[in-house]
Amino acid sequence: MSISRRNFVKYTTAAAAGTAIFGCSHNDSVSKGSGVIMPKSGKRIVILGGGWGGATAAKYIKLEDPSVEVVMVERQEKFISCPVSNWVIGGFRTMKDITKSYDGLVKNYGVKVVHAEAKDLDAVNKKLMTTKGVLEYDLLLVSPGISYKYETIEGLNNPAAIEMFPAAMKAGHETVLLAERLKAMEPGGVVLLSVPPTPYRCPPGPYERISLIANFIKKYKPGSKIIVFDSNDGIVSKGPLFKAAWEDYYQGIIEYVPDNFIKSVDASTGRVVSEQGDIVPEVANIIPAMKANQTAFNLGLMSNEGDDWVRAYPKTFESYKYDSVHVIGDATHNGAVGGVPKSGYVANSMAKVAAVQMVRKLKGLDPVEPTYVNTCYSLINETEGIFVSAVYRYDEKIDRIMSVSGGVSPTRNALFGKHARDWATSIWSDMLL
């Protein structure tokens, strides 16, 4: 099945309609060693990262041109969704609910999945070195996600502190750890959550988490509260809607302190020191400032010294550094691509654009004019939701992605909560099935 130019926008927005790096391998030819694995016989796109961007791109490249060989390199055996992981922390979903198989990509589209880690990149000779061996490519798509700037908080940049003060903005072990600590907390305990400075993954994500932790406390931990130290001067996304929900449902449970940076932590005592004082909470969710995943640095994808994010051209997502390497998702530099949030839906939308543009590039065709979409739902309890949405277009005059329309939900209600649940099911299907 090929995506025509006429259907380009339809596929880009397909998941929205549905709402009403890195083992073993799926491919037996992969073996241990440092030599070339899976020798290339035709046009090939290698994808590094099997998250929201990478998995979507793998599927949509094959939809655009089934003859292109797609090899996806991903460390994890299964896809674990960061969006919706707050529901696990809130106590009404499990990790099983947000963990999905890559088998649909393999069986339905012929995507080859290699569970390995990237070690190095030879962009001149178009070779990606992995822990399983060397993969040759014609084009490489990198969707590595984020990593944390632990060094910005004194005392945090060591394994003991990371375990004591989990960030849980990459779904997995830390998600489970935070959920378990909330369940084990005695009534009357204090939870501390810190919101990092922008830009960071999923702007409304920490505020949804605050709401769901408060909901959990209200139901199961009487006398407890959650204190929020926000590095920003106010709620970054959906502020009035979150504030109204907190006022109506969580008075006396949420204590919100804006413009308050975390200065240091002490894993031996559990103490957290901020600009406005220190505290020893029973449970601490410290979310540091963020940057592109360390893989992007290790592979030499940064074009400017001091950059924390990878610069890429927004029309095609070709990297500034190498014309054979495209970069999408949270790892991209907003100053280069434009003012889009670092969200799962944006990564999904970028992936569909990149899929079309990269296949056209292989065929020697000019890129098409792309559009991009974002919808972000947040639950404020187990049933009620709010949302923000936007449509973006590429502006050739300034070479940036710009918002052309959008808005937020007028209020919170159970219907939007249902839409949030339907959205998750729909977009996972869009990516993986």
Note the main attributes of this structure.
433 residues; FAD/NAD(P)-binding domain; 2 domains; 5-stranded parallel beta sheet; 4-stranded parallel beta sheet; 22 strands
Explain this structure.
This is Flavocytochrome c sulphide dehydrogenase flavin-binding protein. GO terms for molecular function: flavin adenine dinucleotide binding; oxidoreductase activity. Residues 44-157 form the FAD/NAD(P)-binding domain. Keywords: FAD, Flavoprotein. Pfam families: FCSD-flav_bind, FCSD_central, Pyr_redox_2. The chain is of the alpha/beta class. It folds into 2 domains: 8-145 and 293-370, FAD/NAD(P)-binding domain (3-Layer(bba) Sandwich); 148-290, FAD/NAD(P)-binding domain. It is 29% helix and 24% strand. It is built from 13 helices and 22 strands. It has helices at residues 8-12, 14-17, 52-64, 85-89, 103-109, 159-164, 173-184, 205-220, 239-249, 294-298, 334-337, 344-362, 414-432, and strands at 44-48, 69-73, 79-80, 99-100, 112-114, 118-122, 127-130, 133-136, 139-142, 146-148, 190-195, 225-230, 254-257, 262-266, 271-274, 277-279, 283-286, 290-292, 325-327, 371-379, 385-395, 400-408. Strands 5-2-1-9-19 form a 5-stranded parallel sheet, covered by helices on one side. Strands 13-12-11-17 form a 4-stranded parallel sheet, covered by helices on one side. Helix 3 (52-64) runs parallel beside helix 12 (344-362) and helix 8 (205-220) packs parallel to helix 9 (239-249). The protein is globular, with a radius of gyration of 21 Å.
